Amino acid sequence: MSSFIIHYQEIALKGKNRSWFVTRLVENLRRAVSDLDVSEVRALMGRIELVLGPTAQPDQIGERIRQTFGVANYAYADRVPLEMDVITSAILSSLKNRQCHSFRVSARRADKRFPLTSPEIERQLGSRIQESMGWKVNLDDPELVIYVQLLSNEAFYFFDKTRASGGLPTGTAGRVVALLSGGIDSPVAAFKMMKRGCAVTFIHFHSYPILSRASQEKVHQLVDLLTHYQQHSRLYLVPFSNIQQNVVLSIPGPMRVIIYRRLMFRIAERVAHIRHARALVTGEAIGQVASQTLENIAVIENVANLPIFRPLIGMDKDEIIAEAQKLGTYPISIIPDQDCCTLFMPSNPLTRGRLPAIIAAEQALPISDFVESAIREATVEEFEFPMIGSTRVTNKRAS
To answer: Are strands 48-52 and 38-43 parallel, antiparallel or unpaired?
Structure first.
């Protein structure tokens, strides 16, 4: 086997824009395997071929393909000339050491100028394989499926397909800013937006030096992992403890959580403008904590002028944990830390905030100064995958 054949699904429905999506997917695949022995990534008729070099490690390359959004499935394949005798001989040579009881041939003819139809190709190949190998043909539940795809000037064959991440290629849906707490929910929400083609910028609010750096260290690990899927990430680390201390001095205890969240959204929106992002993303789910009741969500989001996406809004905690475990973020998210949201937490937070009362309370705060100081004091870190040179560039100012 000398190639990977990569199939997309949702992209195929894009009509006149399909070529733009395919081009972006090819670019993303090239970047994903840029440090591996891959000699070429090229778009073909309805599929993409990734040509392996002499020292390529297929398992490693396959994992990179699996993590690239826009890929529906992929297969380790061989390329052969577009001649039935050559195709048959190559397949039989590849099968000679296989043990199997039943099989079927699945042929696709991308170029209709080829003289045989797909069913005719399947019958010819199936007959030769049955005669040579002695295996039984089973069209309904075969032990082995032999896939053959015929293009204009070449053919490919392979024996297994592997499901990939699906979705849309990263960057095709624009840029968003995700509020990343270090908990279980927000990394899953960010991942779901990546899968829909969004390039995600991350923002994390921390209370260092009042609290430890534990939450920042967790967020570094989470962004490292998530960058495997979008290849480049930017993380804004925003100090929030001074703002919280000022809020404590001026705002009644029950209102503070709502005020904190409204301030976070204001700061995140400023970061979104810096990054030319079109929306904010959170890991909120209805009723999970006090700030996530319908009333409080409405009061908190009122402060934002950008759309706020909540991919987990209707999920329960068990469902979100299952997603986090599948993604691999769960073991990181459950590492004990000191989250800024727990600092100065009132014992009786409002669960049904009223917008007029919250706006009136905010009059005691220098909101604009808080936002400007947060942006000024934030640091930015860059993440790359695959890592070529330094993994992160730190202490870069947000503004």
So the answer is: antiparallel
